[in-house]
Amino acid sequence: MALRAASLLPSAISVHKEGKLNSSLKESSFNGAFVSKNVKSDFNSLVIGTKELRRKSSFGPIRAQTATVAPSVNDAVADGKKTLGKGNVIITGASSGLGLATAKALADTEKWHIIMACRNFLKAERAAKSVGITKENYTVMHLDLSSLESVRQFVDTFRRSGRPLDALVCNAAVYLPTAKEPTYTADGFELSVGTNHLGHFLLARLLLDDLKKSDSPQKRLIIVGSITGNTNTLAGNVPPKANLGDLRGLAGGLNGLNSSAMIDGGEFDGAKAYKDSKVCNMLTMQEFHRRYHEETGVTFSSLYPGCIATTGLFREHIPLFRLLFPPFQKYITKGYVSEEEAGKRLAQVVSDSSLTKSGVYWSWNKNSASFENQLSQEASDAEKARKLWEVSEKLVGLA
Ligand code: LMG
Ligand code: NDP
Ligand code: PMR
Question: What pTM value is reported for the model?
């Protein structure tokens, strides 16, 4: 069926070096929460609350998972037999890395239609082709999260397509660890927080209405988080550490003019801005849960999929880092996961019928079994989440 809207706008044609899905890599995975046995003695000295790291009993239930699906019936008539009962999922940043691997994992089930929400139309089309996602299983729609106008346009285009929405995955991100000076979104927000948090905040707020309308029994809104935003882990204690402070920089517009470009009001640091943005992602998921889970029945989740050291996320890092980071994660921290494995994990959060609990930050242990992870104190601070929500609403023009 041809549901590709005519108004989709391809953005600039530039093909970056892409992380490829590597199905031959099957690594044991770091559990995402605390230091694994193998590295505990080597790394404990780097950590501030080591007691926290040793509390293994707090892992909660560990279950082996396989990807199953939560199909929606809405597509049945329009799409004909081939797509009978398919669910519709929007994945931002599906043109590379985790987003692409998740799109592939879901498309392979033949039970999902993937809306690849990407800033580079041609790159997304090529990416889908390169991993063998078949035409009837995806649609590329243009979305540039670094422009609020583009977010609003995307939502309009999606609505005009007539597709129902059963799941939204806020996955796209930028990481600018070597930037000396801040760069800005179209609306004048520091680029990492503007893209990773504010763009997704507006998108998710707008699309909640569409999710509500879905008649799927398992509608989900997922915002990808990370271990590096959680200071209750070793990885989260590698400087610079995430810290939103009292949000004074964000409240001032994050524009580097009359306010700092950093959420906490401090000096610009690209690596910290990314980690701060991930804290925002995890706080936003919980605030959505508190405000809307009961009313809407939508499941809100976040996750740390493991360290996918080969993705495009590190494209701006120095070449030495890009060379050493994958072996470091594979052989020393054991936190490494392949893009394919990480994609299967996120696909579980989208569609596994046993991951329906709302408000959870999922992680996986080294046997690839999912468990409910603990967030750091800051990333689970309900008062900060509320304040973040209110300030963000103002910045994106919802309040
Ligand atoms: C910072 O720099 C920027 O300054 C900052 O602004 C921000 O952008 C930040 O978060 C991003 O990056 C990058 C980084 C350099 O600086 C640091 O992280 C500082 C700490 C570096 C300390 C290095 C010490 C290495 C300790 C590793 C533990 C060793 C344990 C020994 C055990 C030996 C067992 C055999 O970072 C880099 O450029 C590289 C970082 C990647 C870590 C490199 C680790 C080296 C190990 C490489 C081994 C690979 C081979 C594996 C084979 C193992 C076989 C067993
Ligand atoms: P990639 O760089 O491979 O993927 C990021 C995606 O985001 C790309 O598709 C990119 O598009 C897209 N994107 C960036 N900016 C925008 C924008 N302005 N508008 C629309 N899309 C945009 O990185 P990963 O796959 O590693 O990252 C995916 C998610 O996983 C992120 O949320 C990241 O924080 C998280 N994560 C990653 C970990 C890792 O180890 N890699 C660990 C934990 C979490 P384009 O292809 O055009 O560049
Ligand atoms: Mg980190 C012990 C486990 C562990 C894990 C799971 C990660 C994940 N990292 C760990 C440890 C360490 N890292 C240690 C001991 C160091 C010092 C050598 C270290 C360094 C390091 C750097 C410089 N790590 C990094 C960087 C990055 O630039 C990445 C980053 O912070 O991006 C924000 C990164 C990461 N380490 C991870 C993960 C998942 C990342 C990718 C960032 C993310 O998506 O959150």
Answer: 0.83
